[in-house]
Design brief:
single chain, about 300 residues, alpha/beta, Rossmann fold, 6-phosphogluconate dehydrogenase C-terminal fold, 2 domains, 11 helices, binds nicotinamide-adenine-dinucleotide, binds prephenic acid
């Protein structure tokens, strides 16, 4: 296995699920040459494997995951969170002793629990989650600079070895990401509010507007200006990925939704009773948050 100070982080990196996130890692690895010497993509879709090769994203792309991971120094699972457990159960037994297992799933309690039964003492596991993405999916959607200046959240477990953790830290740093470490439970609460709830709201508001357009047979959606359009970008995200995330992070998401509904109710009351001060205060908080994200180059 290659070192972390210079050269490549891993000799052979196998990306399982070379969609938006997996193919962005492959693009980064190809372009900079500092992540791995050999790149292999595994996908259960032969069409995705063919496309990966057409795009020149990997040295090899195959549907035979078991054979592929046997050569790997690192296996990165980039499949939807609902598929992580089954994929790990199939692939981990075939990994070399000492090879590192990692994932990029958007929820961490459910993913670490789903992978736990497949773990081996000689295969260190480092759960990770790059906080970057777009509404697009598949190998064509990846971007070489997707992770540039974005957070990558690491949720190491008790059994995660310091060496494997350092290798995954180095890999994501070389993808351009900034790192934070936290527990899986804390991760899921934070992501419920900053990622999962906003998606839930976007899917819901688009549905509400569409219902209204049907009911009134009017041009509601034709007149949508940029405020509504910003919601539709998020609402265009992949249904399978988001179904899995909502179900996997059920508890934290429902807690945040409950809090949000209380705050929305308070706003409704302020509007009903003409409480201008309350309304201005809430809007000013929103502006402050946007300003601080721009200052930190996160927007
Ligand atoms: N899209 C985002 O914004 C984003 C951001 C950070 C993390 N994530 C996480 O990254 C993971 C991948 O998301 P994505 O947006 O890249 O998805 P994607 O749909 O673009 O790619 C997923 C790939 O996994 C393959 N796949 C599905 N099930 C499989 C299986 N059982 N075996 C092998 N391959 C399989 C699909 O064919 C597809 O090529 C998810 O866990 C998601 O939660 C997504
Ligand atoms: O930018 C987007 O379109 C995204 O949905 C990216 C986003 C997010 O909510 O910020 C989505 C899911 C992730 O797990 C991480 C990032």
């Amino acid at each position: 296995m290659a070192g972390t100070d210079s050269g490549v982080v891993f000799d052979t990196l196998v990306v399982v699920g070379p969609g938006l996130i997996g193919s962005s890692v492959l693009r980064r690895a190809k372009e900079y040459g500092t992540l791995a010497r050999r790149l292999v993509a595994v996908d259960n879709s032969a069409a995705v494997c063919a496309r990966v090769m057409e795009l020149g994203l990997a040295d090899e792309a195959t549907t035979d995951g078991v054979a592929a991971v046997a050569q790997a120094d690192c296996v990165m699972l980039c499949v939807p969170v609902g598929a992580m457990g089954a994929v790990a159960a199939q692939l981990v037994p075939a990994m070399k002793p000492g090879a590192v297992l990692t994932d990029v799933g958007s929820t961490k309690v459910s993913v670490t629990e789903a992978i736990a039964p497949s773990l081996r003492a000689d295969v260190p596991y480092v759960p990770a989650h790059p906080m970057a993405g777009t509404e697009f999916s598949g190998p064509d959607a990846g971007l070489v600079d997707l992770f540039e200046n974005r957070w990558c959240l690491l949720t190491p477990l008790e059994a995660t070895t310091p060496q494997a953790l350092q290798q995954i830290r180095t890999l994501w740093t070389r993808c351009g990401a900034r790192l934070r470490e936290m527990s899986p439970a804390h991760h899921d609460r934070v992501c419920a509010i900053v990622s999962h709830l906003p998606h839930l709201l976007a899917f819901t508001i688009c549905g509400t507007a569409d219902d209204l357009a049907e009911e009134t047979r009017s041009e509601v959606l034709d007149l949508a200006a940029s405020g509504f359009r910003d919601f539709t970008r998020i609402a265009a995200s992949d249904p399978v990925m988001w179904r899995d995330i909502f179900l996997a992070n059920r508890e934290a998401l429902l807690e945040m939704l409950g809090r949000f509904m209380e705050d929305a109710q308070a706003m409704a009351r302020a509007i009903r009773w003409g409480d201008a001060e309350y309304i201005v205060d809430k809007i000013e908080r929103g502006r402050e948050i946007r300003k601080s994200l721009i200052e930190n180059r996160q927007a």
